[in-house]
Amino acid sequence: MKYLDEFRDPIFAKSLSENIHKVTTRPWTIMEICGGQTHSIVKSGLENLLPSSLSIVHGPGCPVCVTPLEMIEKAILIARKPNVIFTSFGDMLRVPGSTSDLLTVKANGGDVRIVYSPLDAVTIAEKNPDKEVVFFAVGFETTAPANAMAVWQAHKKNLKNFSILCSHVLVPPAMEALLSSSTNRVQGFLAAGHVCTVMGYEEYIPLAKKYNVPIVVTGFEPTDILHGILMLVTQLEEGRCELENQYSRMVKKEGNIPAQQMIFNVFEISHRKWRGIGEIPKSGYSLKKEFIHFDAEEKFSLGIVSVEESPLCIAGNILRGLNKPFECSAFGNQCTPESPLGAPMVSSEGACAAYYNYKRQNVASSGSGMVNKKH
Fold first, then answer.
1. Stretch 128-143: mean pLDDT, rounded?
2. CA 354 – CA 338 distance, rounded (Å)
3. pLDDT-derived band of residue 64, with 50, 70 and 90 as boundaries?
């Protein structure tokens, strides 16, 4: 724990908290864009260390949560087909479609397998030449290099029975969509450190200038986040709107060049729909034309799938920072990790799951779903 303890030091955390209180003179609303940061904030009780005038809202930084419902339906349709081995990371199996999920398909006899790397799916395809092997390629820029490598390896091995169901999304276009919305209330961003580790942070500089909003690239440990908040509030109080890098031990301006090269060998930027948000232009990756034979949507001729969200679920508002999970009437009642209505209650990075696991003690016993105010 040597290298973690220093970023969880309660004395340093208290010092950062005191400094945040000193510099904060006005109400501010800031958003952390990463689900990992959301869980760290809620699990560590960091909001209780902040001034009451400082509001932290949670953004669309959970890749499982923003995967469109239509894509979940397509995954279920493929996984149900005979002669298919459907592979995925484990957190996608319980994401609800309109009437079912991948775990139910598995329970009913479908060959659905959890893998820990997309390259595992390539190996499965090699060992099962008589089966169609599909990998559910979900994620932000962080997971794109490994998914691109899987396609590249399948191409080199001339595998005809491997494909990916691609639902890759990109963070900067989502931030711009939030900032340009008439309902936006975010005045500053904590940017996702792991995304910037891969892609660098040059894309965020023009966003900060265009929308007059400070952005701080931030790590994931409690003192990382408190330090990022201090840097962000300092900018807001001073009237500055710049890109700053709190996570300098991992993030460089240019990012990881070899990883980026692998991404753009295989993928190209495309429009993508985000669950709860809608289509955002140029906000995702799709396979390049020369790799289209690895596209599961094309291979299985899925076409257009239309489905409706549960009317009780306000995941879209939560992902846009307009509501907190406890403001949903279904939270902890009709919607729980055992019986989720939306992806944020399922994913290990989902805001609803974070509040359910770590903050339920604050939920009023009236069952209204509201949380008591901080004292």
1. 97
2. 14
3. confident
Considering the chain, tell me which residue range(s) the CATH 3.40.50.11740 domain(s) occupy: 10-20+27-311
Res 360: pLDDT: 58
d(CA 64, CA 69): 10
Name the more confident of 26 and 34: 26
Number of Cβ within 10 Å of residue 191's Cβ equals 32
What dihedral do alpha carbons 363, 185, 20, 196 form, nearest 10°? 100
The two three-digit tokens of residue 174, written as one number: 């989502």
Mean pLDDT of the chain: 91
Q: What pLDDT was estimated at residue 215?
A: 98
Strand pairing report for 278-287 and 267-274: antiparallel
Q: CA–CA separation, 22 vs 130, rounded Å?
A: 66
Kindly report the backbone phi and psi dihedral angles of residue 173, in degrees, each rounded to the nearest multiple of 5, phi listed first. Answer: -65, -35
Global pTM value: 0.89
DSSP string spanning 94-142? T---SS--HHHHHHTT-EEEE-SSHHHHHHHHHH-TTSEEEEEEEESTT
Could you tell me the two tokens for 21? 């209180």
Distance CA 308, CA 70 (A): 9
Task: Give the architecture (CATH level 2) of 10-20+27-311.
Answer: 3-Layer(aba) Sandwich (3.40)
Residue 36 CB neighbours (<10 A): 18
Q: 365 pLDDT band (50/70/90 cuts)?
A: very low
Name the nearest CA neighbour of 71 among 302, 243, 244, 235: 302
Q: Where are the beta strands (DSSP E) in the chain?
A: 28-32, 54-58, 84-88, 111-114, 132-139, 162-169, 188-192, 215-218, 243-245, 267-274, 278-287
CA dihedral 168, 170, 171, 176 (to 10 degrees): -130
Give the model's pLDDT for residue 136: 98
Query: How much of the chain, in percent, has pLDDT values that exceed 70?
Result: 94
Q: Please name the residues in contact with 229: beta carbons below 8 A apart, sequence gap of 6 or more.
A: 16, 20, 30, 50, 54, 56, 190
Instruction: Return the SS3 of 363.
Output: strand
Q: Which amino acid is at 88?
A: S
Strand partners, 114: 88
Contact between residue 273 and residue 70 where contact means Cβ atoms under 8 Å apart: yes
